[in-house]
Amino acid sequence: MSADEKFYVSYNSVHKICQKAAADILETQGKPDVIIAIGGGGFIPARIIRTFLKKDGEKNIPIQAIGLSLYEDMGTGQDKIGKEVIRTQWLDFGSLDKHFDSLIGKNILIVDEVDDTRTTLHYALSELYKDVQNKAKELDTSSSGTKFSVFVLHNKKKAKRAELNEEQMNGGTYLSGKDVDDIWIAYPWESHDIDAHTEKAKAQGNY
Ligand code: 5GP
């Protein structure tokens, strides 16, 4: 594949990657208590993987959506939190506390579509970890049982700008559906012509 060519991914292949990943996660980590989807790319994989993480008769795993954008131009604006990442949406603590007793002690699965420079995942993990620490302090309890795992559909094989802190993951695992070369991945939910997109994905074997 040439460098200027895109890697086309079909809905079908996304579904199959999620199915396989769910089996791996159930085996290594057990069923997550909550899924945190990084939007917008993590929303659809998060919803699909939930299907395969749940057995018949079990309750649905709650999905919390967070929104993060990478900010290339470093500035000092108020809306920029962290180094290069902007929070556009964060956890719904009201709902978490009311229905779910916070994230403390939970088996948490963070889902995004692609791990490119790893900046976004690093930010999400470290901020969620901080939130749990703060909440535990507030409640005068221990956060030691809290575990974070990460699932992405695709991981780009390249030098990363940030790493995931294993201590923060606390035994949680990092799982990528597929490790791919460092080229642009075209996801089906971004396509304006899904038939042509799917044909290209098929031609590349991503079906
Ligand atoms: P990061 O560099 O922080 O790992 O990735 C930041 C975000 O950039 C991803 O969540 C994704 O939204 C976007 N991104 C990075 N590489 C690609 C790609 O190849 N295709 C698409 N569609 N989005 C990408």
UniProtKB/TrEMBL annotation:
<dbReference type="InterPro" id="IPR000836">
    <property type="entry name" value="PRTase_dom"/>
</dbReference>
<dbReference type="GO" id="GO:0004422">
    <property type="term" value="F:hypoxanthine phosphoribosyltransferase activity"/>
</dbReference>
<protein>
    <submittedName>
        <fullName>Unnamed protein product</fullName>
    </submittedName>
</protein>
<dbReference type="GO" id="GO:0046100">
    <property type="term" value="P:hypoxanthine metabolic process"/>
</dbReference>
<feature type="domain" description="Phosphoribosyltransferase">
    <location>
        <begin position="13"/>
        <end position="128"/>
    </location>
</feature>
<dbReference type="GO" id="GO:0032263">
    <property type="term" value="P:GMP salvage"/>
</dbReference>
<keyword id="KW-0808">Transferase</keyword>
<dbReference type="Pfam" id="PF00156">
    <property type="entry name" value="Pribosyltran"/>
</dbReference>
<dbReference type="GO" id="GO:0032264">
    <property type="term" value="P:IMP salvage"/>
</dbReference>
<keyword id="KW-0328">Glycosyltransferase</keyword>
<dbReference type="InterPro" id="IPR029057">
    <property type="entry name" value="PRTase-like"/>
</dbReference>
<dbReference type="GO" id="GO:0005737">
    <property type="term" value="C:cytoplasm"/>
</dbReference>
<dbReference type="GO" id="GO:0032265">
    <property type="term" value="P:XMP salvage"/>
</dbReference>
